[in-house]
């Protein structure tokens, strides 16, 4: 796998040599492209030593361009990763400007682009940066993190670069077929996002699910070598490359699509926030308003998860329980009632859970439990998939469990 690693000028650039090592450990060829300000934080000498390739930094370097032009570099890349990505480089990519080698490559490449933002937390939450993030995501650019925690400036908040190992695992998961990881040879079917249930031709019932957790779980499963089939409700997220994505709108469509693939599944993970009810009758014309009170007759939607877990020969089934109160108690009763192998419980509402980049989880199974402390959904998905793989092999009593690709080491 060929990775163009762009390094921009933030303090987190000091972690770049470690990131290069993590990428190379996973078999990637890494060509570094630095901006001038990155050189203020990390030396070319260190980066050249760990990457084993001369560093590129200048668009006008005739010799380097003769060896491999910026267009050839853009074509060579299987993935363009920028880590750390400053607010400035995000803004430049949004504007489509190409004043330097790195942004020129971003404009010229057809490969997936992933950014690991790193900046002061106030800069990250600035509306300008957030609107740039939204535009980048809409254009299919993968935004990895940032993580929450203490920052070099002495403050605490969202803006830390994700740890190099997590970035490396996620980016390598963006290209499939590595033949490594705990789930090699296994197929994982995942539902994600909300569903929409029509009230009339212009209105619908939906919920606040963003799909971020499900998409992160899909990438994490791919990073462990699984073949991943993602059945997605309407979300505003880029399609993860190498993952077989099927888009649906309603709960009934999600049910149909999940069942179309379920006989291939070794593991089924239901992260979707499926509507529990849909309007009983959907008129062909828009319902006219009047001054009277009104009501909508609702009928239950099919429970996809329960229908999979009660199949004659079900895959290993993992459900999610989003609750606003009594989280663990409700989750455990759902685990039993729906006959699941595992359930992942999280608190939602009051600014928690839905449509956020971070979360905290309790994972429950018949005789066990594991807590995952607050972290980004990318980090949680990585840990969750490792645990799912462990429990899957424990449940199947397999003695041929492939080696887990450890993507959470820190040294
Ligand atoms: O019963 P509840 O909706 O709280 O259960 C949540 C779990 O069940 C989630 O894993 C969700 O994806 C799944 N579910 C489903 N089909 C439904 C409702 C929920 O697959 N109709």
Write the layout of secondary structure elements.
Elements: E1 2-7, H1 16-25, E2 29-34, H2 44-51, H3 62-67, H4 70-76, E3 79-85, H5 87-95, H6 101-108, E4 113-117, H7 121-125, H8 127-138, E5 142-143, E6 147-150, E7 156-160, H9 164-173, E8 187-192, E9 197-200, E10 203-205, H10 212-223, E11 227-232, E12 244-247, H11 251-261, E13 267-270, E14 277-279, E15 298-300, H12 304-309, E16 316-323, H13 327-337, E17 342-347, E18 358-365, E19 368-376, H14 377-396
Helix pairs in contact: 1-2, 1-9, 4-6, 5-8, 9-10, 10-14
Bound molecules: cytidine-5'-monophosphate.
How is this structure best described in words?
- This protein is an alpha/beta fold and 411 residues long.
- The protein folds into two domains: 2-171, Rossmann fold; 187-407, Rossmann fold.
- Helices cover 33% and strands 24% of the residues.
- The protein has helices spanning 16-25, 44-51, 62-67, 70-76, 87-95, 101-108, 121-125, 127-138, 164-173, 212-223, 251-261, 304-309, 327-337, 377-396; strands spanning 2-7, 29-34, 79-85, 113-117, 142-143, 147-150, 156-160, 187-192, 197-200, 203-205, 227-232, 244-247, 267-270, 277-279, 298-300, 316-323, 342-347, 358-365, 368-376.
- The strands form five sheets. It has an eight-stranded mixed β-sheet with strand order 12-11-8-13-16-17-18-19, with helices on both faces.
- Helix 4 packs across helix 6, helix 5 packs across helix 8 (127-138) and helix 10 crosses helix 14 (377-396).
- The two termini are 24 Å apart.
């Amino acid at each position: 796998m060929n990775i163009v690693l762009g390094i921009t000028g933030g303090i987190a650039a000091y972690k770049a040599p470690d990131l290069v090592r993590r990428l190379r450990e996973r078999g990637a060829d890494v060509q570094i492209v630095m901006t001038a300000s990155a050189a203020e934080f990390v030396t070319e000498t260190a980066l050249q030593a760990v990457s084993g390739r001369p560093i590129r930094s200048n668009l006008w370097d005739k010799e380097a361009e003769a060896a491999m032009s910026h267009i050839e570099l853009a074509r060579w890349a299987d993935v363009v990763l920028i880590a750390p990505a400053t607010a400035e480089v995000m803004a430049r990519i949004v504007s489509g400007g190409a004043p330097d080698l790195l942004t020129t490559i971003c404009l010229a490449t057809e490969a997936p682009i992933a950014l690991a933002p790193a900046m002061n937390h106030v800069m990250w939450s600035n509306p300008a940066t957030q609107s740039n993030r939204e535009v980048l995501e809409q254009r299919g650019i993968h935004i990895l993190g940032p993580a929450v925690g203490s920052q070099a400036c002495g403050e605490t908040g969202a803006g830390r670069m994700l740890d190099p190992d997590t970035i490396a695992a996620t980016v390598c998961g963006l290209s499939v077929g590595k033949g490594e990881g705990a789930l090699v040879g296994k197929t994982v079917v995942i539902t994600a996002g909300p569903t929409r249930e029509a009230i009339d031709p212009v209105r619908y019932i939906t919920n606040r699910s963003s799909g971020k957790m499900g998409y992160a779980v899909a990438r994490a499963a791919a990073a462990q070598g699984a073949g991943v089939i993602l059945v997605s409700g309407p979300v505003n997220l880029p399609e993860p490359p190498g993952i077989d994505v099927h888009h649906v709108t309603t709960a009934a469509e999600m049910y149909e699509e999940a069942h179309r693939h379920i006989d291939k599944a070794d593991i089924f993970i239901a992260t979707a926030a499926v509507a529990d009810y849909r309007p009983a009758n959907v008129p062909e014309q828009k319902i006219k308003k009047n001054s009277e009170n009104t009501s909508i007759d609702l009928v239950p939607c099919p429970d996809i998860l329960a229908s999979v877990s009660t199949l004659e020969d079900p895959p290993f089934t993992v459900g999610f329980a989003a609750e606003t109160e009594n989280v663990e108690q409700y989750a455990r009763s759902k685990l039993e009632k729906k006959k699941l192998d595992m359930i992942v419980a999280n608190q939602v509402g009051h600014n928690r859970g839905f449509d956020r980049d971070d979360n905290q989880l309790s994972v429950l199974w018949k005789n066990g439990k594991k807590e995952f402390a607050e972290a980004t959904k990318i980090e949680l998905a990585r840990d969750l998939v490792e645990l799912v793989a462990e429990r899957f092999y424990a449940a199947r009593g397999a003695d041929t469990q492939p080696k887990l690709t450890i993507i959470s080491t820190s040294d």
